[in-house]
Amino acid sequence: MRRRIVLASMTAASLLPGGASRAQQAGKRATVGFLVGADRASEKPWLDSFAARLRQLGWAEDDTLGLDYRYAEGRNEYAAEFAAEFVRRKVDVIVVTGTPAALAAKRATSTIPVVFALVTNPVGSGVVTSLARPGANVTGLTNQQGDVAGKRLSIWREIAPAAGRLAVLLNAGGPGSVLEAEEVQAAATKLGLAIAVARIGRAEEIAPAVAALKGSDALYVCTDPLVAANSRHINALAAEARMPTIWGGTSRYIEGGGLIFYGPSFVDLLRRAAEYVDKILRGAKPSDLPVEQPTRFELAINLKTAKALGLAIPPLILARADEVIE
């Protein structure tokens, strides 16, 4: 199979107090393999927060810890290949973002600790059996994208109370995306919104999918590494179709022309993922670390997009927003 692979490596390290690292006890350099579900550009702020938190925890730049990144770019086959690579290399911990990457890592190993972040529904997608008792070698943080779908739609309703038709774009190959779409449809039904759904599996399918949804009052994009890697393209296509976009994930997804972002702080989740890695490298077992949920949520509004589409944003929403893009 012909592949286009983007690789990056960074060495971050520490002198651990008391030599607590399992890897150091074994007399070798500890290695963390970071499998990024999307591309570097879309996840860089979160990756930076992860590395920064490791430094705060005492992992200074030195030669005792290697941090190696691989970017799946929303491709499940890449995620599987990179997870297998980390297993062959016998890294000490695998960190992943996104549900497909988490499932790929789980399938690849039952012994190497896996720390996930940004997974929509870790129990429903089969990443873990329980939040309180994840068991085995996998634990991490959920982003609860599906759980806050109703909140995103209620914010949209405040902006456009007369709207009647909502379009939904999802990656049919992403378990988290599918579960989120189910939550969106349930919330839309309660609000009396008609739904039009388009499913994609590859980047090449995005343009025709958005074109098929034209005529809807707004486009809800289910968060997934595939759409994350193509967020600006999706926003541009939606703008041409006069459909404001509603996003979870990160406010970066609306910088390129989206309208609404509401969801957990991914920067905060990645900082907390670094804390899991720190604990595991110091001897903790993944099975003893419960899956945690978000504690910080953010609202962002792109006022420039609203003006371009002739939408008036209610003052109360602007007052609640953590970020207003003008």
Strand order, biggest sheet?
8-7-9-10-11-12-13
Question: Which assembly state applies to the chains in this document?
Answer: single chain
Report the CATH superfamily of the largest domain.
Answer: Response regulator
Bin the strand percentage: 15-25%
CATH class membership of the largest domain: Alpha Beta
Helix vs. strand class: alpha/beta
H/E element order:
EHEHEHEHEEHEHEHEHHEHEHEHHE
Mean pLDDT: 87
Task: Write down the overall geometry.
Answer: elongated
Got a strand count?
13
Question: Would you identify the regions where 5 or more consecutive residues have pLDDT less than 50?
Answer: 1-27
How many domain modules? Answer: 2
- State the helix count: 13
Characterize the biggest β-sheet. 7 strands, mixed
Level-2 CATH architecture of the largest domain: 3-Layer(aba) Sandwich
Measured distance between first and last alpha carbons: 45 Å
Helix fraction, binned, reads 25-40%
CATH topology of the largest domain: Rossmann fold
Q: Whole-number radius of gyration?
A: 20 Å
